[in-house]
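Just curious. Invent one:
>
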Amino acid sequence: MTLRCSKLTSFAVLILLVGLPSTASFAAAPERSMISLSPARFSDVSAYASYNWAGYAINATSGSVTQVKGSWVQPSITCPSAASAVPPAVAFWVGIDGLLSTTVEQTGTLAVCTGTVASYFAWYEFYPAQMYNFTTIKVSPGDTMSATVKYSTTTGEFTATLKDVTTGKSASATAAVSGAERSSAEWITEAPEYCVTSSGPCSLASLPNFGTTSFGKDSTSVSGTDSATISGKNQIISKFGTMVDSLTMVEESNINIIKVAPSGLSTDGTSFSVTFDNAGP
């Protein structure tokens, strides 16, 4: 296995959760290294292990990514029978940047165990700015979610749009992001960090058991997903060939322990699933 340095920038989750200290939040993780898996798990893509991401990413050139679309079915999480100091949490999102760059423009859902009770949220973030909750979208297990992050070459701004296809509710937000490279597109399941205060200390959250989550058209029937527009060409994941990376989430202290594993891409190249295997620390 060989080490590839990267900037796996997570999102900052500043939703105040019932039962947690008012100063506590989920926050952006530090850079997480990617470890090349040899032999690759899937013959048609480059495979890497990550400490906090699982799913698929397209590693493109700077300034080339203008849009990413994705869809997934929100899973139900199973919380531990006893509360822990660091609440288990898992996020599902679609975004631009963050793979090998310091910003990330993203939107998705977050599931958190507050004590032994599961809570679900919709959010967007233009990192390094904080994360915001889409309060008009009430996420429930089993809902089909559809997300788009788009960059305007005219205004220089990103627009993140999230829709709960099941309920019909949607929301969007637009902002400019200084230093955004537009160098990658992602469809990710993530273990975020939990911070006692905005200045830390922070630690990586363990994962609640979410079973298996399905991304893409085959499971959601949302057309045009999972796809990206890179260098002016809109294509499904599989069409980007050697630019495609699969990411398997592993334990930091032992990279042989898999926490979340992605499946291979579907025959039509539009879809995949991620499966919970281990909660982590």
